[in-house]
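Protein 1 of 2
SEQ + STRUCT:
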Amino acid sequence: MSGKLFAAILAALAIITGVSVYYLQVYGYYDEVTPDPAGLVPDGGANPQLGALRAIDADSSPLRFRACFTIADPDAMIVGAEPYAGAVPLTAPGWFDCFDAADITEALAEGEAQAWLVAKNIEFGVDRIMALYPDGRAYVWHQLNNCGEMAYDGTPVGETCPPRKETE
């Protein structure tokens, strides 16, 4: 086999691998889902009236959940809710265009939106967070909490974290 043929085969395999990895990360693992509306607002909310709901999730990681929607009465959804300090939305794939992590982060920093805890430890070390704008726009994502950050960087989690479920 000549060197040029070998190089061409190697280059073709590299391109195929690159395209496959890109596809899997951006499209392959995500599915559009229809979550329970009560699971998108703090404490299940009192009969949430959500509109324009779009959500994505993936089985490959609990951090891949994102949702965008509107709330008819935003003030009613946060009664008794716990504010969430340090909320930082993770980016969503470009095709899920209703969720712009940079805009949400900026709005949270400037006080144009408020972050609320929807559910603590939705999975071990992962909280569900909602950014809520006064006009009723809302965005939900999953974020590592302190226990999750310690568990995934190898630090002993200690007694303050809930027990971790055993995987089969």
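Protein 2 of 2
SEQ + STRUCT:
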Amino acid sequence: MTILSKLFGAVSLILILATNAFAQDNQFTTADEIQMQNCWEAVTDLNLQGEEHTLIECVGAASNVCMEEEEGGMTTMGMSACIMREHSWWDSILNINYQNLKQVLQPSQFEDLRDAQRKWIAYRDASCAFHYNYWGEGTMRSTAFAGCMLDTTAQRAAEISNILDMSMM
């Protein structure tokens, strides 16, 4: 086993453990859902009025409120928890729209999407592992990891949502 494969294995294990630790207690709440839906609807309404806005503008809509209103929300662990709660919302939207695309795309198109999605997951995991490890043993590492997961997942969820919208036309 080479040093590189050992390092990759260690990074993968850290990422899995960090993801599982965050995921256990950081499911989005009803309040998070309301914040995110309100933002989504506002972006949609503005676009219908001829303005150009993207769903990415909603990143932080729930996590920022969580950090401001939850006890301990401005601590490193509180920020990480709030960010991962919002990440879980974006991840659910991504998964719902991905499954909806399975119903509207041609089988060969969906196979291409599935292959791309698998590669995207590998990219996201590697990228966020880098952000986690970059901060070494510092407490900032959990916030950096959570921020990476939120931003990367939200970007992909918006992209999948746009593909679904175009496929429904």
